[in-house]
């Protein structure tokens, strides 16, 4: 008896990216923290501050059905920080 074929899973990560003002502040705070604890986490070109709203897996066959919900501007039209 053969095992049933499994649908391929796709990872979805929905996040809020800060504006330039918040990125600058995060950089300043990160430098201050790194002065006190050099072995700590450093922001760089591949590590950006953000707020994760959702992380989950979706089957590849369902991706087209859920993708429109996560398009830029659709989840959160605007936010005032």
Describe this structure in words.
The structure is a single chain. This protein is an alpha+beta fold and 81 residues long. The protein has a domain at 19-70. Helices cover 26% and strands 21% of the residues.
Low-confidence stretches: 76-81
Q: What composes the largest sheet? A: 2 strands, antiparallel
Query: Which sequence of strands runs across the widest sheet?
Result: 1-2
Computed CA radius of gyration, to the nearest angstrom? 18 Å
Main structural class: alpha+beta
What percentage of the residues does DSSP assign to strands (E)? 15-25%
The ordered H/E elements are EHEH
Secondary structure layout plus pairing:
Blueprint: E1 9-16, H1 20-36, E2 51-59, H2 63-66
Antiparallel strand pairs: 1-2
Provide key terms for this protein:
single chain, 81 residues, alpha+beta, two-stranded antiparallel sheet, 2 helices, 26% helix, elongated, disordered C terminus
What's the quick description here?
The protein is of the alpha+beta class and 81 residues long. It has helices spanning 20-36, 63-66, and strands at 9-16, 51-59. A two-stranded antiparallel ribbon has the order 1-2.
